[in-house]
Amino acid sequence: MLAGYDLEHEDVMPSTWRRVRWLSSGSYQTSASAERGDGNSENRHREVLWCSPGCLDPTPTLF
Fold it and tell me: Which of 42, 44, 48, 50 could form a disulfide with 24 if both were Cys (CB 3.0 to 4.6 A apart)?
């Protein structure tokens, strides 16, 4: 399994790997950066997990 942002590894990942989008929480930003609007709120919408063919199929309740 590989975690990254949506276009970060897209051109090098084998077509046999599943791409699973998920939305992380905004908990990694500080309250000050949230107020300024320069936290991770935009990147959290770009989170992707690439699952090798050997990985189990993740269920929606897993994340």
Answer: 44
In the block, residue with structure tokens 């590989």? 2
CB 1 within 8 A of CB 55: yes
Angle at 45 between CA 28 and CA 40, to 5 degrees: 30
**Closest by CA position to 63, among listed 43, 40, 52, 47:** 47
The pTM for the full model equals 0.61
* Phi, psi angle pair for 44, to nearest 5°: -65, -15
